[in-house]
Amino acid sequence: MLLIGMKPLMTAILAIMHPFFISVVEIDHNEKEASLEISVRAFTDDLEKMIAKEYNVKLDLTQASQKVKGEDYINKYIHKKIAISANGLKSDFTFIGFEIQKESTWSYFEIKNVKQLKQLSIFCELLFGIDPQQINIIHVTSGGKRKSYELAAPKNSTQFLF
Questions:
Q1: Which of 10, 21, 123, 135 could bridge to 83 as Cys pair (CB 3.0-4.6 Å)?
Q2: Does residue 10 form part of some domain?
């Protein structure tokens, strides 16, 4: 009985001892606004490491004094590592901004003029290269239906049909 009560504690200890490498990309089709609303969540320290590796720049996203610099590099990095096609057409996404929540950075983007979403293709190599166990989880919601897919290197693309 004592062992069962310790299971949550052991899980927490293992999580601390063995960090995980994961990012989440949420894409919501807003039919009313005819847009795709995209949010990308990554651990802040991992995002800073990959930006440093890609652009040879030191960045501390938690510092208000580096907000503008952070916006520029996050925008460049995400655009380099994620590509989206809606209904067979390559889509340009606009950077809205980012915010820090605890140990994570949330970045926000939008694709306009998507009235209906029948098919969505996504290429995502976000944080690939930080750790061989990096996983990118993609969630797409359209018409009240939510679909998800897990991309683990070397797998870097998937498609959703609605």
A1: 123
A2: no
pTM: 0.85
Instruction: Count how many domains the chain has.
Output: 1
Please check whether residue 6 lies inside any domain of the structure. Answer: no
Q: Where are the alpha helices (DSSP H) in the chain?
A: 2-17, 44-55, 67-81
End-to-end Cα distance, the chain? 47
The pLDDT of residue 5: 47
Low-confidence ranges of the chain (pLDDT < 70): 1-20
pLDDT at 153: 86
Residue 11 belongs to some domain of the structure: no
Asked whether the beta carbons of 159 and 124 are under 8 A apart, the reply is no
Residues 6 or more apart whose CB falls under 8 angstroms from that of 152 comprise 133, 134, 135, 136
User: Which domain does 116 fall in, by range?
Assistant: 20-161
Return the structure tokens found at 93: 């996404």
